[in-house]
Design goal:
This protein is α+β, with helices and mostly antiparallel strands and 167 residues long. The protein is built from two helices and eight strands. It has helices at residues 26-41, 131-144, and strands at residues 47-49, 59-63, 76-88, 91-95, 103-109, 112-118, 124-130, 160-162. Strands 1-2-3-6-7 form a five-stranded antiparallel beta sheet. A three-stranded antiparallel beta sheet has the order 4-5-8. A hairpin with a 5-residue loop joins β6 and β7. The two termini are 24 Å apart. Bound molecules: nickel (II) ion. Nickel (II) ion is lined by residues 97, 99, 139, 143.
Length: 167
């Protein structure tokens, strides 16, 4: 399975909204598989959204389980046409992004959300996400709406940090 190249800031596709997916045909499923392979290829990468690999389809993949902060998770999730609702609680956590490799940022996110989405085959499903996994889902759905974590930090001067390497 080929690994897709990552679009980085300031690539304009990262700021554009995505289109709902209507077909779950072989090319769509192959693209999802390539997204999963690309996420797995990058050490400690816990999520990837289609705009990050140059597509405007409303698709993200995530797997928070590999991350030391994760706690209990649902493992691999394929998010096609995802909708997040019922946000509860909130806390500030440090986030990074493959598309912004030089920085991390402190972002306020809900710590519980309800996810509705379709899977690789188009089957609708729902999950309740908590903690780190809930944060990853919010980060990825933001990508699908053309938003990056830099758009979410309260103060660019004090809440963004330079780093030498990704994670
Ligand atoms: Ni990201």
């Amino acid at each position: 399975m080929s690994v897709l190249s990552i679009r980085r800031l300031p690539d304009p596709i990262l700021n554009q909204p995505t289109h709902l997916v209507g077909r779950f045909d072989a090319p769509t499923q192959r693209f999802i598989d390539q997204m999963i392979a690309t996420m797995r290829h990058h050490p400690r990468c816990v999520g990837l959204a289609a705009p990050q690999v140059g597509s405007r389809l409303r698709i993200a993949v995530m797997d928070a389980s590999a991350h030391p902060k994760a706690g209990r998770t649902h493992g691999l999730l394929v998010l096609v046409n995802p909708v997040l609702g019922e946000p509860e609680a909130a806390e500030i956590r440090r986030e990074g992004c493959l598309s912004i490799p030089a920085f991390t940022g402190d972002v306020r996110r809900a710590t519980r959300v309800h996810l509705r989405a379709q899977d690789r085959e188009g089957q609708a499903y729902e999950r309740r996400l908590e903690g780190f996994e809930a944060v990853v889902a919010q980060h990825e759905v933001d990508h699908l709406n053309g938003k990056l974590f830099l758009d979410r930090v309260a103060n660019l001067a004090t809440d963004v940090f330079r780093r030498k390497t990704y994670l």
